[in-house]
Amino acid sequence: MKLKYLIFLLFICSVSSGCRKKQMIETNSFQLNVEDSYVYYSIKDNRIEVDLNTLQKVSLFDYFSHIELIPLDTNNDVLIGICEEVIHYQNRYYVFDRKQHRVYVFDNTGKFIFQIGKRGRGPGEYTEMRSIFLNPFNGNIDILDLGFIYSYDLSGKLVKTTQLTNLNPPIYPYNFIALNEKTYVFYMINPSGPDKSFSSRIFYYDVEGEKIFHQDYEVAAFFNNFTFVNTTSHTCFYEYYGKWFFSFPVDNVTYEVGPNSLIKAYIWDFGKDNYDAKKLDLPNDPTSVSTLPYRINFQAQNNRYVMARIRLRNMINGFLMYDKSTDECKNIERFTESVDFLPRKVTNEYVLSWCYHGALEDYVIEEMLDETNRQKFKDLINTKEEKNPILIKYYFK
Distance between alpha carbon 74 and the CA centroid of its chain, in Å? Predict the structure, then answer.
């Protein structure tokens, strides 16, 4: 009945001149936002209920129709060490190599075009690239360095430098987003720093005034000692429907990054496995985090699904797939095809992931490849030479 209702709704929108305006429709189990004939499901009651002790058998075919492979060019000038981040924009892929502190630019087919920036100590050169961000307000690629933001246009030309070390005290963030043309929001791994000046992890920065105007999100100092909260294991920001969201691995609340502060957006409700990280009394030992019921290391959503990678107490890596249209969450240890699924970016069309050359067979179901991509797959797995990472797109049904 729900599917028939949705089809009817979309038909009405397609013939109605009013469908260009945003509409809100309430049903018994979910809310629909209809805008320009696109359907946006909401999270019912801003709460996702999950039983961590019950696993479901789920196939990738339940969600995805086909897979596209995009091998990144390999040559002596382009050898990616650690693929930390990939941004797809205007038919180009901007790839952040965390090991070599470089940004490589490839076209839609994976052909190398050019490199942005240069590591060094000269004017405009960076020393420790920590994060990259496509700034939608000026169209630049922002590179977060150790105490600086270097802004490059899409041709790779340096156009602006923002200094953060001139703050009192200086800050050295690890992740960041541009909330608007006047505001950056920074995430700090160890907010206290050597002088114990900060106790928060989120900092709102006024670009014009060159000052921090708000600090947010305090956590127990205990977690400053553990590297599991850094960017290699946890993506703290994601964007959806024109808004930015923030999450922390040991917090089951996900926050919207509001204009002046964090706002509670939705809750992962794990029932008896819920815990308050600020009230934990754990030994000051890195292994003690393995006793936590869960750690959420990745989150993202599109119009229909909310996804999360989760690590459970028994060190099992799981995956949560919440369908907003049915208010149902699947707790998945591994898909029935026994392939690894490591989402990095989520759009309404596809999930973007990537893997290193020698691991491709662990991430791909050959039956999901068309003739062109199947030939790519065979060529890649039969190549003995070391290759750059392969981008993988899982397309939704």
Answer: 25
